[in-house]
What we know:
Bound molecules: zinc ion
Number of helices: 16
Distance between the termini: 56 Å
Number of strands: 17
Helix content: 40-55%
Amino acid sequence: MEQKLFIYNTLSRKKEEFNPITPGRVGMYVCGPTVYGDAHLGHARPAITFDLLFRYLRHIGYKVRYIRNITDVGHLEHDADEGEDKIAKKARLEELEPMEVAQYYTNRYHAAMEALNVLPPSIEPHATGHIIEQIELVKEILDNGYAYVSQGSVYFDVEKYNKKYHYGKLSGRNLEDVINNSRALDGVGEKHNQVDFALWKCAQPQHIMRWPSPWSVGFPGWHCECTAMGRKYLGYHFDIHGGGMDLIFPHHECEIAQAVASQGREMVHYWMHNNMITINGQKMGKSLGNFITLAQFFSGEHESLTQAYSPMTIRFFILQAHYRSTVDFSNEALQASKKGLARLMEGMANLKRITPQAAGSVDMKYVDELRQKCYEAMNDDLNSPIVISHLFDACRVINTLVDKKATITADVLSSLSEVFHTFAFDILGLTEEVGNESGREEAFGKVVDMLLEQRMIAKANKDWATSDKIRDRLAELGFEVKDTKDGFTWRLNK
Ligand code: ZN
């Protein structure tokens, strides 16, 4: 590989040079959505973060197998491990088959991801499609003595595991902290210790999602699926496991324990976690009433939104922050992203308007340095905001070329275009949103400008009839036109 990529490993708590287990190949697993509700801003961040990694790894020459799962069973309401199954609950409330719920929200998730230009993963396994693999995993953990059966359910014996290994190594906790911070909930009577987590749950009579197992008719614990499916598709030892920071504990901590307890060694080499999105400084949550779905962002139909935001604005907004830093959503922040994206896209459009010259003041050295700086930023733990700032700097150079204050040769111009396309389109995954809402709005505005420019020509020619006709027709359509000292302004009164 020509590029040396450094990524922050949550496990070692430092940036490490990325070295894959098999040269030239990367196996990566990212925890996907639990499909019982519409995808929201919190889903967009891990999807875009790991899409950026997927795109970059492929760009620098790796063959990548990217697994992103669909959780359609076993994710319970409280602490992920207690209460009612999220999908079964939705199915019960809406009188649907659980798989109807899962399919419906999976389809909606896919549509949102496609709109955000998130590439589909190589494999998208469903938890319900891998019950056998999960039962096998539970058997291995039981055989190795790190789990016990209690009233038809199987629980992981955290205390026993912790005597030999370290439960809490990923989240930086020790067992004592975990015990002190855990709440006693239902199921505790079955557990030897309240910190033990379910590997298999015996189904209550009303529980509709159930499968036979050696222990009971029931369903797998939430943490099992990722260990079982990661191993099935990527092997006993693979490169990258990612997800949101909220998954570090307990989900990923439990995944590590399951892997070590079943196979005696760790499964994952690099653990990567994206930070969270807050809304006006608050954590996002259904109970807080600040829960905005991606569909609502795209349509603008939510009381907290002052307007609709296109999928590319959302993508750009997320990429403008480093994935390990927090992002706070506000209308102002998204409007700034919208403007920033428009500036970048205008720069790219302007590239096509430049006429190359026989000699140029912008030389190949400049373009090579720009490319190099963009690679350096990406190699430094996927620093997308720095890449964007380099591209903004280059937009200023493009403007001087458009204004004919600088010159460029055809060769250098084509290299400059190539750098923009590589980083903005291929790696950052941005697209031109022609024909979508904001594109149409922009075109519409330009048409109104054009009409008013015609009116100014008419006025200059003292053709009052034409000038008045344009103004009156626009007024009929709801446009308020004001003449100013050096031209005009207009607004559409709805
Ligand atoms: Zn997972």
